[in-house]
Design goal:
Blueprint: H1 2-15, H2 21-45, H3 49-81
Length: 82
């Protein structure tokens, strides 16, 4: 789902000529890489307290730093273009 969502969001940014596209896309790529690494770690080690904490931290950081900040900037840009 995340990959589909990011692809749709990136297409919207390209079509609207969003000036922050490169940085925003890089953020998506870094999240996918971090998530993939964590997923592999959980598959190798199992669900440990450490992995649960890492997952919670990664998702909380994403919510706080990306959705509440980066995505808000995109939303404001799109709103202003209307």
């Amino acid at each position: 789902y995340v990959v589909e969502h990011f692809s749709s969001e990136e297409e919207l940014m390209r079509k609207s000529n969003y000036p922050g596209y490169d940085v925003h896309k890089r953020s998506h790529q870094e999240f996918v890489l971090s998530f993939t690494t964590l997923k592999q770690q959980i598959q190798n080690e199992g669900t440990s307290l450490s992995n649960v904490i890492k997952t919670n931290k990664m998702l909380a950081d994403w919510l706080r730093n990306h959705i509440m900040a980066t995505d808000k900037l995109l939303g404001q840009y799109l709103k202003d273009k209307q």
